[in-house]
Amino acid sequence: MGRNILILFIHTKHAIGYCSYLLVCVYSLKMLRTLLLLAGFLLLRVEGQTPPALPNNSVRLFLPYEDRAIPDYSMIYARQFYNVDQNNDVNNINDALWCQSANNVSNIGVWYYPNGTEVPLFDGSFTDSSAPSPVFSKRFSGQIALARRAGISGYEGLYNVGTTASTTFNITSGLIEGSTYTFYVVSYGSASLPSGNASVILIISYPEVNDFTATEITSTPIALAWSPPTDVVPTSYNIVTNCRRVCESSFTSTNETSVTSPHTSTGIPPYSLCTFDLIGVYEDDTVAFNASTVATPFTGMISK
To answer: Which residues cross the membrane (predicted)?
Structure first.
């Protein structure tokens, strides 16, 4: 069985005269192939990873090659999105064009060609040679990529992604009492053009509780009950209790957290006059509902 060899000729000058040396370096074909593959690997772009950050709300288009979010109906060049980490950024982000959603699920939508047909979805690696050409899409949790692996001559136009987000969207922060907000909803079809918007106006009033009541149960417990405010329901409630025993001027205060209605407040000394204040706990704030109730617990008989 023959060997493949690589012969290197090196001609040197000696002090006495000229001498020619023949250096013969023998490499196995397997070793040579290994070296060539290693050199090729160092020249290749890495596939890259998905963008780590998703939007806090709504949907956005993200272009990692430029490291920026882009607005709808933006024009980009083919040289700005790829199927690998083309610009070798420090975070190794794959330089596809990404549609990202705050709805962190795997199926957030579908990419469409300019003619309205779906861009093929591919489950393999970004760099898999069997991936559709010139563009394909890949789904991940909360985002879907539009990747390019070849020139797109003949495929230019307005690409769009139709999201499959829920028709219910909860806004839990950033709203201020006493303000008026207008929300618009626009749908996109396969023709890439948006529908007319539908809007709703919401006025956020200051939350109020009007039926906070206290009922004596036995000698020390008090039963408290209330209905949630109709405008913005808090995530939980706190109750602040201030009690003063008869013939005493000082108050004893307690704070009960994460309570629900109905709630039993215990440990109240006999012969006490108590006020109970209801506090609503929201994501970034607490609201005193200006709802106080007064109770005089059972006054036991004085022993003789």
So the answer is: 21-44
Tokens 């692996």 found at: 149
Residues 230/236/238/239 CA torsion (nearest 10 deg): 50
Contact residues for 114 (Cβ-Cβ < 8 A; gap 6+): 155, 156, 157, 158, 159, 192
Residue 122: Cβ within 10 Å count: 20
Please report where in the chains the tokens 């008869």 appear, as a residue: 246
Q: Classify burial at 112, counting beta carbons within 10 Å of its beta carbon; exposed 0-12, middle 13-18, buried 19 or more.
A: buried
Domains and CATH numbers, the chain: 6-43 (no CATH), 46-170 (2.60.40), 213-295 (2.60.40.10)
Dump pLDDT digits (tens) for 89-126: 888 999 999 998 887 887 888 898 888 899 999 999 99
Is there a contact between 112 and 159 (Cβ–Cβ < 8 Å)? yes
Block residue for tokens 């699920």: 105
Nearest to 228 by CA among 213, 250, 240, 210: 210
> In the structure encoding, which two tokens stand for residue 31, read together?
């070793």
Report whether 280 contacts 198 (CB < 8 A).
no
Q: Can you tell me the distance from the alpha carbon of 110 to that of 161, in angstroms, rounded to the nearest whole number?
A: 5
- % helix, strand, coil for the chain, step of 5: 5, 40, 55
Q: Over the stretch 190-226, which tens digit does the pLDDT of each residue have?
A: 444 455 666 677 766 777 787 888 776 556 688 888 8
Q: In angstroms, how far apart are the furthest CA atoms of the chain?
A: 133
